[in-house]
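Ticket reopened. Same input as before:
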Amino acid sequence: MHNKSVAELSRDLESGQVSSVELTQQFLERIRQEDSKYNSFITVTENQALADAKAADEQRAAGHATPWTGVPFAHKDIFCTNGVLTTCGSRMLENFVPPYDATVTANFRKAGAVCLGKTNMDEFAMGSSTESSFFGATTNPWGLGQGSKRVPGGSSGGSAAAVAARLVPAATATDTGGSIRQPAALCGITGLKPTYGRVSRYGMIAFASSLDQGGTMARTAEDNALMLNVMAGFDPKDSTSIDREVPDYTAALNEPLKGLKIGLPKEYFSDQLSPAMEQQVRDAVKEYEKLGATVKEVSLPNAKLAIAAYYVIAPAEASANLSRFDGVRYGYRCEDPKDLMDLYTRTRAEGFGNEVKRRILVGTYALSAGYFDAYYLKAQKVRRLIQQDFINAFKDVDVLMSPTTPSPAFNQGEKTNDPVTMYLEDVFTIAINLAGIPAMSIPAGFVDGLPVGVQIIGDYFSEARLLNAAHKFQQVTDWHQREPQ
Amino acid sequence: MTISRKDIEKVAVLARIRVDDEQVSALEKDLGNILDLVDQLGAADTDSVEPMAHPLDAVQRLRADEVTESDQRERFQAIAPATENGLYLVPRVIE
Amino acid sequence: MQWDIVIGLEIHVQLATRTKIFSGSSTAYGAEPNTQANAVDLAMPGTLPVPNEQAFRYAVMFGLAVNAEIERRSMFERKNYFYPDLPKGYQTTQLERPIVGPGFVDIDLANGETKRVRIHHAHLEEDAGKSLHEDFHGMTGVDLNRAGTPLIEVVTEPDMNNAEEAVAFAKKLHGIVTSLGICDGDMSQGSMRFDVNISLKPKGSETLGTRTETKNLNSFRFMEQAIAHEVERQMDILEDGGTIVQETRLYNGDKDESRSMRTKEEANDYRYFPCPDLLPVEIDDSFIDEARNSLPELPDAKKARFMEQYGLNDYDAGLLAGDSKLAAFFEAAAERGKDAKLASNWVQGEFSARLNAEEKSVADSPITGEQLGDLVVRIADNTISSAGAKKVFEALWTGEGESVDAIIDAKGLKQVSDTGALEAMVDEVLASMPDQVAQYQQESDPKKQKKMLGGFMGPLMKASKGQGNPKLFNEILVRKLGE
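Engineering reply: fixed in the latest deploy. New output:
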């Protein structure tokens, strides 16, 4: 049962082969037994899940089922859940129970899906290894068989590990610089970061507002499509959400790929990439050629500046977004503040972890008098150059393909003392967020026994095409079906 | 680009994060490395490039002026660190 | 040494929208603390702002009223600083592209001259909450009901040169925003708050001196006092050879004292940057046209009309037209009373004095303009004397009678205007005062004669039990004494 996809579980529920309560019990039992190895959940909402499952079974019996009615899944602990602890991986929100739902949360509720709990993440989504969580690091299910403790990637490492370990068939995630695609690649699953504005950010705790985007994680492209059907759409509560028709993302999954024009950005196949990694990507591209796609090299000349631009813009936005955590209205507050300054400085020193503090300080510096033009404004200009590169590329090709990460999952602790090395994990993913375009990571083989991913990048609002390309690939490969031992 | 201890102390005050001397030393190195990374931006020719604040070229929607919210003080203050008589409490503010 | 005073104003105008600038919470004044602060206003994690269209409409109306350019693509920035009444840790405001560009307002001065004060720009922003410093055992209480109330901040050029001009401008602006109906103008509730920038320079000098900013003045009177106080303070320092420190000051109107604010605070660095949660706001022609068509008559136009239509002089017309509610009250009284000059005198005299004495606004007046008009009718047709009119006004104010005529009847205030009866009384009184009559008749100076008439009026009013028409008495007296 735990190896089944959302689509399969949905069919089983529909045929009456299994009830939501039974499914929910089985997955909860798996989490209870297995998750001590991974620490992929911060909170497991057992009672609520069982109550929701019961309600879902009743809905189905009454003939009001959606494809999600009664299907178990999990939320990244960045989405606010009414009445359920929402920590964002931080001590600052260790006891924060929001009295409201994120729009994404509400959408899944409406669809009748059964949330089993909240998954672990890098604190405030700042990280690429899920080691900066106040609730302990998450371990990648894939290294364990070889006796190594590998990171699952981040920041959505809890969601990725939980899906890879078959604790849930699907989980929500967010991506600011690669936080869906990189962990999806490192855990051997499929993840999609939609176009900026496609999924509402309301109730999704902000890291960098102009880059953050909620998205999907599951083992198959089809399940990602089913998730996006629930998540995508205009939200009047989010001024940056786009009022544009939402297609049925499952409708075009089986469209033939004949004539699909694939571009390979030469800057993403440089010496940063090990020959073994590159081989996996080239093999995947060959599969696409077999499916009728054509391939050409393209150039993204400014892509090499993406990390630099990102590490100005994201920390700058974060420095303001995280000012609300001040110990006054909710969240952590230091003991016995002696005055207002003490309340602020100690609450924030004690409530935030090191990486979050580093980024707030970098962002504050970049915005401060005398540096604004050289850093912030310059980064915004470079951002436009990067966007222009993609716009130009998509004049010639339909999608771009690249490795998702420079290497497979690394060992826990390997990069924690060197922030900049950690930042380079996102070298292939980060430009996509700056441009705001959609991209996926799909499983594409193994290096040293660890999964690696191929990134498929599309033009604005081309999610259906990306899912189609991913799905067709998954019809002729089985990388996404491999189970960690 | 190097960042001085003084800069770090100033920025920490602006960001309202207490840092002790030891942390300042660690931050000097880490922030210095991050700023070195960021300094690559200087290489880009951005004359006549418009800054880009948003990924999409969209314009703001405006909301009708209608009250949609009701009093939820009790629920919000149930999760507050310190309240009294419906007010949030903070150490005395001297203007 | 002689000094030139240079004054610029920043005025926060609370917009009279139903809801906040970025959320659907009510902005009604006086609610229990924090009952009008929702998830967005409290800056709960993950919440996002959605701007209120009405705030933009009001800002555009304001821009049109002050002859300003409207920014077709305005933006919001974040202004970063920590304060307990600022939930997000930044204020969402406009810096680079404010909604209202340069404009101007003409003000009337006491010497009859008109002066143009230029407006640098006006921008939309959110108000902060309130900190309450009493009664919490050494803690401060924070009420966020006001947090997110829409404001326009109007910034002038330093075009004013004394307190009179600054106050005249402030009053003019008050008249404009209340006429537009975009602000309730209630200063006691903080609906308009003034920051005054003041600097001094040697008379005739081209170079501006260092300025100070005196913040948060919430009445015209305090503003006038604060300017006088600050000018004197700066003059004392400069004449002692000192230098002015650029700083923000707080003025205490009750004690006529001021002090520097945030003395030991580190230099502010607000780290403005474009708010990534909000997109550029595009204002198109139809939005502007709609706003233009909804503009009511503004004070300048109203003043011109009052002079033309009612024959008021420049001063009276300006004063009445400057306050839309007072102007409406006056018009009702003038239309009903058929004597605009008399109506104007009563509105500016007895009526305004009474409002001031009881610290009431026109809206709280217990009498209507129509009632005052009825009173004006009875004064003009000599039914009552001016002394009697004051009694009727008093009765109307305290709600003693139904109508003006009912009060006149009930109080027996109708004047005797029957000339025969009055002449008889005059004859009688003159006969009883032969010495005074002789004195009067011997006096050659008409001015002194006029003064002496008063001596007969007392006994005459007594004889008529206060109901004799004083004007007629006067005429008869002059005639009879001249015989």
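Chain C has 15 helices and 15 strands. Chain C has three domains: 3-289, 297-411, 419-482. Please confirm and we'll close it.
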